[in-house]
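re the bet — no i am not wrong, look at it urself. input seq straight from the record:
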Amino acid sequence: MNTYQRHRFPPDIISYAVWLFYFRFNLSHRDIEDLLAQRGITVSREAIRLWCIKFGAIYTRRLKRRHRGYGDTFFIDEVFVKINGKQHYLWRAVNQYCEVVDVLLQARRDGGAAKRFFKRLLRTHGCEPREIVTDKLRSCGVAHRELMPETIQSAQQYANNRAEQSHEATRVRERGMRKFKSIR
């Protein structure tokens, strides 16, 4: 089945617009509309929005299939996020190349939540990493001891800056949306 069937624009233009929105720059649909207009392509921002909804997940799956794997060092951190007035915790694991390995949103930050995230991380990665770098959160130590005892854990000051910096994109999006309204 052709995924681009019944679309007025060729697949190259659609994939370029979705690439600009999701994978390359932090642009709005209106900005992408302007960029395409400069190249002589007249398309509405609503069409771009619908393309991003329809094709964004397809492109992401395609890229994940081609992904060669993550490194052997994971930087793990959590951040507070308010969603509809309630506090949640966004757990994130980043490898040594600053690629996001896994993200999980949970209502708690205790040992059980850390174990859930570590189990999911092991399932996503396929094997234990050589080293994990965390902040000094005790629940990470509990999950590390129970699930990955052979893995080296480091909790030195400033060692976890890669994970801290990876939260910046979430904060920018949160400011742009004027707080998150739902978990989706």
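see?? Residues 35 and 41 are 9 Å apart (CA to CA). told u. also The two ends are 29 Å apart (CA to CA). so pay up
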